[in-house]
Amino acid sequence: SNANNSKVKRASAPTIDVRSGMDVESLKQAITEHLFYQQGRNIVNTSLNDLYMAVSHTVHDRLLQHEHKTMNAVFDNNNVRLVSYMSAEFLMGPQLGVNLIDLNIMAEMEQAVQELGFSLNTIMAQEEEPGLGNGGLGRLAACYIDSMASQQIPAIGYGIRYEFGIFDQVIRDGWQVEITDKWLRNGNPWESARPELAVNVKFGGHTESYLDSNEYLRYRWKPDYMVTGIPYDTPIMGYKVPSCNFLRLWKSEAEESFDFSSFNQGDYYKAVEYKVKSENISKVLYPNDEMLGGKKLRLKQQYFFVSCSLQDMMNIHLRFDGKPQDFHKRWAIQLNDTHPSVAVAELMRILVDEYHVDWDVAWHTTCSTCSYTNHTLLPEALEKWPVGLFAYLIPRVLEIIFEINYRFLKEVSSRFPGDNGKLSRMSIIDESGEKFVRMANLACVGCCAINGVAELHTELLKQQILHDWVEMFPERFHNVTNGVTPRRFVVLSNPGLSNLIIESIGDKWPGKLDELRKLEPFADDAAFREKFRSVKLENKKILAALIKERTGVVVNPSSMFDVQVKRIHEYKRQHLSVLHIIALYLRIKQNPDIDIVPRTFIFGGKAAPGYFSAKLIIKLINSVGDVVNNDPDVKDRLKVVFFPDFNVTNAQLIYPAADLSEQISTAGKEASGTGNMKFSMNGALTIGTLDGANVEIREEVGNDNFFLFGLTAAQVEDAKRNGYNPHFIYDNNEELRNVISMINSGRFSNGDTNLFKPITDNLLWHDPFMLMADFSLYIACQDLVAETWKNTAEWNRMAILNVARMGKFSSDRSIQDYCEKIWKVKPFNIRKA
Ligand code: GFP
Fold it and tell me: Which sequence positions carry the modification called N6-(pyridoxal phosphate)lysine (predicted)?
């Protein structure tokens, strides 16, 4: 390490055994001490939560020691480039289990807790997960920080410490009801507040120009008020490696000294109002799939966490003796979607206004630091903010955006003279009507790399919404196919399967998922297939019990578990699966003695509170379930369950129990999907369209081991261009007509023929997601699924091959791709440092 760096060297960690020992005795002692000194309890009068807290603090102590060593090693080395993963969402899931796996002390902790008279499973079930994300995007961020630590990539995840995460969902009378998520109510043992690292963020006011001592024209921002960001750090341990990174989430507080004037003038209420206004910024996570148009608070959140994080990163950089303009040598920033893309302008502001770096130099630094991941082609999801709102909240940042845009458009017109269409499409400012700041354009201008999240998605991005950008900056475009962490989603969630795999091929695979290939020969081994089947059956029994507990519905564990869990959205087409259920129900009604494969349809997922159609789909699922589940003709051969409050905790119980994974989005709409990967890793077969990562999953597992149906993305586009007519399809398909008529008859709505009309009318007259076009293909494919299911050996052979061929979809591989293609960083082995 570098001797010049002594000023950043920290004291080494204390090595008192009770805070670091990994053996059963040390763990027991540490738990008892935490229980007493932190929770004020002892082992005979403890509550479950106090015990959970004591166990978690015990684990947290051990993580901190690794974090401390990692950061010492990193900060001692001037040549390390760190990754800053900026994301408005981190859907972390419960922490205790994964940390025990990463530290490799699951067995020791189980024993320690048992010797104290408790069960580790019960303690783990006590954890309230931090639901600081909506769905795929937030969960991806969580998988990525896990994999960065496991790949020994020095990294910090930066985000917002929402006091209220995604709402809890309960189902009342078949409808979704939202309940506020109070995840912090019982305390959070995984975080440490770092008030000494607080930073301030400006809002409102105006800007002024002035001449600095060298007679240069400079700008300063005179804000109306400032908000303080307090960082809360959560250690992120690597899997069986000594590296431990951290997640740094910002909480907003009032900048105490700022509004004293109003207090002094006797306006106590105004001072309090300012405090409330400041604290509101990190109050609540916004659900997605809703128009964000007027949501001032959301823009404040974005700017708040981006500014806090960049200031923090600059402080770290300067502590290394770095020059401000060399910021990019220290940091690679990944912008997780456009939510943090104001970083491009904020970094410019910091460099130019605060450190007086020349514009051109600062621009080079900024572009060399930032990269942008796009997660969707849906036009309504492309963020844009009214220029007026920007001017009002962050006036100096808007001026900088105007300057960036002015210079950029000059470049565009010299590259493509006379192409006014291009100019107006590529401009950061949308001037077609009310003026907007287009966040994706800001990201594309200021980032050296732009990536999609699956091959198909990246191709479509290049052909469609980012086509102009490819012409301008072809070298910026990359694909990085998403991945998921096998530690959480196999080792922790599916111990039965993990143990079976370990018995068969050893235990290297969770850190090196390609190893799973060694399972391939076992697919032809009848004895192995039998063990595999019985692991699945056990998982299904556990889920069945939970379904009974949460919904009252009794399901048969040996029926096929046909599962669709994800956010509820029309493009994901949960209602296509409902049409299939009704078709099967009709077949039974027409011939009650029909030979039909028993199936349990399990749905789960939240709808955005303001997304009416999605909420109506939930109601439809529950209503169809009420009828089908209770009709004696069905003889329990079909069951329909809506599993309430789909979150990471519940997901971990659902994936391992699935037989069939529904990945049935309209081709071209699902950027990647990540649930699809979690299902296959746990040995479910997929029925899916050629959409998102399904394409690559099918490529990996083999066409014969994947149930493909439906139009391709190109066919969807063609059909739309040629005047797609859903009603025509309806008129010509009897089964489909019967299904739709059954819904419209009021059969599922106590005779109310209007309740589901918004759904059926939309399908018949508009059908933007092409359910009608795919219906018969889907039904035929589902019939094939049922045929295959009857051959248990064949089904399990296919399922084992799915598991064996999932290596590509470890988030470790995705992170390696980011490191090589985009960040240009290498693993940093702290033992060798
Ligand atoms: C979005 C996309 C998904 C993609 C994830 C992660 O998910 O297709 O897999 O991001 O890249 F739509 P949501 O956040 O919308 O669930």
Answer: 678
Does CATH number 3.40.640.10 belong to domain 498-809? no
Does this model's pTM top 0.90?
yes
The reply to whether ipTM tops 0.95 is no
The C-alpha torsion from 389 through 395 and 396 to 398, rounded to 10°, is: 40
Domain-wise residue ranges, the chain: 77-93+129-482+817-823, 498-809
The catalytic position among 678, 698, 797, 813 is 678
Active site residue 567: yes
Look up 375 and say whether it is catalytic. yes
Give the SS3 label for residue 708. strand
What is the SS3 assignment for 334?
strand
- Our mutation pick for probing the ligand 1 site, out of 132, 375, 677, counting the most ligand atoms within 8 A of Cβ, is 375
- Given the residues 70, 674, 686, 689, select the one marked as catalytic: 674
**Banded pLDDT at 269 (limits 50, 70, 90):** confident
Q: Quick one: CA torsion of 761, 765, 770, 774, rounded to 10 degrees? A: 80
Beta strand 384-386 with 370-373 is: unpaired
Fold classification of 77-93+129-482+817-823 (topology level): Rossmann fold (3.40.50)
Query: What sign has the CA pseudo-torsion 765, 770, 771, 777?
Result: positive
**Measuring CA to CA, which residue among 177, 286, 288, 185 is closest to residue 644?**
177
pLDDT for res 273: 86
For residues 521-527, average pLDDT: 98
Answer whether 454's CB lies under 8 Å from 693's CB.
yes
Catalytic status, residue 435:
no
Check: CB of residue 445 under 8 Å from CB of residue 777.
no
Fold match flag (77-93+129-482+817-823 vs 498-809): yes
Distance from Cα 569 to the centre of ligand 1, integer Å: 12
DSSP element (H, E) containing 602 = strand 599-604
- Taking only the tens place, the pLDDT of each residue in 688-722 is 999 999 999 999 999 999 999 999 999 999 999 99
Give the tokens for residue 625: 């379930």
